[in-house]
């Protein structure tokens, strides 16, 4: 048996009726996806990256600008994933996973250089290079699992892609504990409001990127080495149970309505994913002044991300993709349209006009050095706030204590969304194979990723403008409409799709013509 190829015939060991190498392949796929799942920690690390760049040559960079890096990642995925099937067919599954892991790690390492240059360079390394590696490594993890467990595609997919959702649980904590163990808070006043300025914190960022790069490389390579392809007699056993002509080629699939329903559904789901992933932490910083707590919420959200994939994969196996996606899209609509409510829970308001109060403090801070405070009481009195001292202004305009209900509500909403949106990522690989057959299912599924070009372009170009014009409430409300669109078009999908039903419909159309 070669460790880098396909298992020879007659060597399929089983434990409890399950193939041993199949179990290893699923675990190896989970490990690679877990590594690549660091993508979901971007909402956390981007707050440090934007702060670092502001203090190192790019003072006008904003957190909203950093969505460009995330969108570059997504658009690269949209371009590379449809082509990855052809690349994998040329170089093989094993080499694709090894090369993908190396590039994913390299992109992170190169960012230690580009983070001191320009934002577009960061987008090129952390966005493009890492995403390119990720997308040539992921498809073999999916197809290998489905080949080993063709009768439990939904569950197998749920386990494998659950790693992608669970990865950020570890990486978010590594990032925050390494770079900000002191729990420094971002500035609440002045030109750097909302950004970290502590030199000791910012100096740790390049080292953190190198540390993460090394972890990605080791974990990804181990996962790749665990994945072996089933022997020929395994495929023979499967083929005897199915009509050998019961498959749809990728060219034929591109002519079916089923493909475009899946394509549009993914566009809507990923649009919601990108917005919540990119902005959950900056939204939380608006009313929660505890970096460790926000990092903890992000880390735990990955557990929900992981379990949500298993949950929706299980629903699909027990009912149908149509039922699973309908539930997911409705819940996403409700949750995204109401998440802003979390910022209103139990907000402390001891002053009649807190906004005016803080505005006077900021105006004073910009015009008079804080060391010259002898005339501050008079300054406040002239602005209609008699008897207000500088200490009161500092306490109310710097780090007000966030009530427990606001923290709890924020966590519940974020976790609920992270439990819901991953359903798309576990059910669509399975339903694509169910609909078009397992021979070309992986390649056809990769074409669905082309929708990521559009939704990531939308996030990159519109989110900043939406925030400036309508704030987080407007952004979240508008994005929630994508859930409604996903629900409506999912109702057009067949209840029990298969290659045979597609061929029958195609034959009927040809006869009518």
From TrEMBL:
Keywords from the named record: Membrane, Transmembrane, Transmembrane helix, Transport
Location of this chain's protein in the cell: Membrane
Primary subcellular site in the record, as a coarse category: membrane
SUPFAM superfamilies per record: MFS general substrate transporter (SSF103473)
Keyword Membrane: yes
Transmembrane segments: 20-43, 95-113, 119-142, 154-174, 208-228, 259-280, 292-315, 404-423, 444-463, 469-493
Membrane topology according to the record: Multi-pass membrane protein
Organism superkingdom: Eukaryota
InterPro entries to which the protein is assigned, alphabetical: MFS, MFS_Riboflavin_Transporter, MFS_trans_sf
GO molecular function: transmembrane transporter activity
GO cellular component terms, A-Z: membrane
PANTHER family membership: RIBOFLAVIN TRANSPORTER RIBJ (PTHR43385:SF1)
Protein name per Swiss-Prot or TrEMBL: Major facilitator superfamily (MFS) profile domain-containing protein
Origin species: Lepeophtheirus salmonis
């Amino acid at each position: 048996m070669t460790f880098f190829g396909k298992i020879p015939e007659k060597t399929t060991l089983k434990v409890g009726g399950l193939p041993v190498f199949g179990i290893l392949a699923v675990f190896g796929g989970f490990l690679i996806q877990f590594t690549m799942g660091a993508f979901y920690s971007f909402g956390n690390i981007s707050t440090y990256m934007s702060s670092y760049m502001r203090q190192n040559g790019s003072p006008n960079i904003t957190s909203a600008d950093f969505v460009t890096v995330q969108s570059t990642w997504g658009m690269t995925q949209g371009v590379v994933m449809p082509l990855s099937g052809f690349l994998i067919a040329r170089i093989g599954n094993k080499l694709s996973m090894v090369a993908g892991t190396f590039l994913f790690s390299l992109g992170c390492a190169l960012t230690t250089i580009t983070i001191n240059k320009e934002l577009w360079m960061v987008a090129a390394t952390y966005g493009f290079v890492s995403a390119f590696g990720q997308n040539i490594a992921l498809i073999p993890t999916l197809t290998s699992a489905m080949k080993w467990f063709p009768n439990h595609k939904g569950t197998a997919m749920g386990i494998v892609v659950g790693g992608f959702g669970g990865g950020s649980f570890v990486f978010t904590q590594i990032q925050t504990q390494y770079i900000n163990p002191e729990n420094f808070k971002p500035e609440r006043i002045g030109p750097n409001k909302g950004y970290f300025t502590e030199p000791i914190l910012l100096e740790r960022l390049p080292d953190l990127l190198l540390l993460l790069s090394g972890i990605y490389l080791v974990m990804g390579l181990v996962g790749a080495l665990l994945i072996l392809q089933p022997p020929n007699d395994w495929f023979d056993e499967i083929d005897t149970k199915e009509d050998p002509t019961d498959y749809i080629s990728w060219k034929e699939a591109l002519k079916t309505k089923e493909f475009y329903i899946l394509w549009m559904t993914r566009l809507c789901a990923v649009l919601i994913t990108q917005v919540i992933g990119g902005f959950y932490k900056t939204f939380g910083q608006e009313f929660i002044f505890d970096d460790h707590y926000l990092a903890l919420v992000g880390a735990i959200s990955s557990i929900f991300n992981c379990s949500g994939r298993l949950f929706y994969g299980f629903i699909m196996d027990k009912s149908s993709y149509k039922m699973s996606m309908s539930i997911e899209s409705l819940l996403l609509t409700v949750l995204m349209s109401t998440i802003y409510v979390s910022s209103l829970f139990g907000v402390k308001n001891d002053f009649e006009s807190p906004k005016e109060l803080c505005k006077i403090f900021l105006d004073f801070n910009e015009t008079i050095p804080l060391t010259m405070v002898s005339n501050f009481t008079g300054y406040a009195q002239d602005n209609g706030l008699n008897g207000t001292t500088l200490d009161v202004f500092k306490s109310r305009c710097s780090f007000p204590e966030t009530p427990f209900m606001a923290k709890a509500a924020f966590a519940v909403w974020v976790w609920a969304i992270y439990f819901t949106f991953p359903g798309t990522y576990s059910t669509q690989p399975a339903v694509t194979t169910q609909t078009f057959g397992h021979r070309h299912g992986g390649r056809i599924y990769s074409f669905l990723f082309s929708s990521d070009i559009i939704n990531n372009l939308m996030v990159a170009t519109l989110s900043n403008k939406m925030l400036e014009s309508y704030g987080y409430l407007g952004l979240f409300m508008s994005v929630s409409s994508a859930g409604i669109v996903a629900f409506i078009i999912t109702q057009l999908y067949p209840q029990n799709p298969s290659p045979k039903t597609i061929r029958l419909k195609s034959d009927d159309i040809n006869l009518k013509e």
